[in-house]
Design the sequence.
C-alpha cells in the first residue's frame, strides 16, 4: 500500500552529518544564489519547516524531502536541524519526495518527468497510482513522460533558458532532431513566447507538408516515354526522313538507338551518313 500520510511521525532534532541524501530525490539542480539567500534566512530565523526523514539500515537517517533546507542549513553552520521522523518505507519515501517537491513547485518539468519515470520503472508503482497520488489525470502524466523524448542537450538548453513545459511540448511536434534543435535555438534567440513558438512550429510543419514529393517511376510512365520515342520516329518518316529506332532490353535497362540519315554533299555523290543520337 502506498504511503498515505505521516502516520507514526515524530518531531526530532538530528545532527546534519547523520542525514544522508535520498537517491530518489527528484531535484538535480540547485540555484547557488537561492541557496545562499536561504542560508542567510536560516541564520536569522532558523528552519521554519522541518525536514522529513526516515531511519535507514546503517543506523543513520535518509532524507525524504527538504534537501535545499539541508544544504542551506549546512552552509549556515547549523549542527542540528528539526526533522519529522516517519516510518515510511523506501518505496513510499521515494513517492513522498516527489509529491512534496511538486507541491512546492521546486522541480523543473524534466526533473518531474524523470522522477515519475523512475517511480514507474524502478519502484514498480503503476501509472494509475502515481497519477492518483500526484493528483494528475492519466493524460497529464503521459504528456509529462513524453518530455523525456527530447534529447539531453535539448532539455539542458530549455532549462537554462527557463522555457516553459509548454515550450517543450511544442517542440515535440517536430520529429526531426536537427530541425527541432534549430527551432529551439530560434525560440531562445528571439525570446518567443508559447503562442509565437507554436505558430513558428506550425509553419515549419506546414512547409514540410506542402513541399513537393518525389514521385517514383512506374511502369506506365516508362511506356509513355517509349510511345513518345516511337511517335517521334513515325513523324520523321512521314516527313520523308528515313529514321529508324532499335530497341534493346536488358534486366536493368531499356535501350533505344535512333538512326537519322544526314545528307552530306560531296562532289561525286550524296552519301548518307548515319548519326547515332
Sequence:
Amino acid at each position: 500500500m502506498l504511503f498515505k500520510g505521516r502516520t507514526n511521525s515524530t518531531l526530532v532534532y538530528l545532527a546534519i552529518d547523520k542525514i544522508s541524501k535520498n537517491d530518489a530525490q527528484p531535484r538535480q539542480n540547485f540555484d547557488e544564489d537561492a541557496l545562499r539567500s536561504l542560508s542567510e534566512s536560516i541564520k536569522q530565523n532558523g528552519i521554519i519547516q522541518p525536514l522529513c526523514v526516515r531511519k535507514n539500515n546503517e543506523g543513520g537517517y535518509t532524507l525524504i524531502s527538504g534537501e535545499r533546507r539541508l544544504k542551506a542549513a549546512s552552509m549556515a553552520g547549523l549542527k542540528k536541524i528539526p526533522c519529522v521522523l516517519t516510518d515510511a518505507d523506501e518505496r513510499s519515501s521515494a513517492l513522498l519526495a516527489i509529491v512534496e517537491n511538486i507541491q512546492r513547485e521546486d522541480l523543473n518539468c524534466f526533473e518531474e518527468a524523470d522522477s515519475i519515470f523512475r517511480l514507474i520503472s524502478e519502484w514498480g508503482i503503476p501509472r494509475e497510482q502515481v497519477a492518483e497520488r500526484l493528483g494528475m489525470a492519466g493524460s497529464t502524466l503521459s504528456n509529462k513522460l513524453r518530455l523525456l523524448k527530447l534529447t539531453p542537450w535539448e532539455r539542458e538548453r530549455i532549462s537554462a533558458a527557463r522555457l516553459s513545459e509548454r515550450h517543450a511540448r511544442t517542440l515535440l511536434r517536430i520529429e526531426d532532431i536537427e530541425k527541432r534543435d534549430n527551432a529551439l535555438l530560434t525560440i531562445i534567440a528571439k525570446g518567443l513566447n508559447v503562442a509565437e513558438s507554436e505558430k513558428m512550429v506550425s509553419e515549419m510543419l506546414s512547409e514540410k507538408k506542402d513541399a513537393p514529393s518525389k514521385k517514383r517511376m512506374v511502369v506506365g510512365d516508362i511506356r509513355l516515354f517509349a510511345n513518345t520515342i516511337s511517335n517521334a520516329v513515325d513523324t520523321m518518316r512521314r516527313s520523308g526522313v528515313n529514321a529508324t529506332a532499335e530497341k534493346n532490353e536488358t534486366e536493368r535497362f531499356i535501350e533505344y538507338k535512333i538512326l537519322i540519315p544526314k545528307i552530306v554533299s560531296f562532289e561525286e555523290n550524296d552519301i548518307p551518313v548515319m548519326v547515332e543520337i
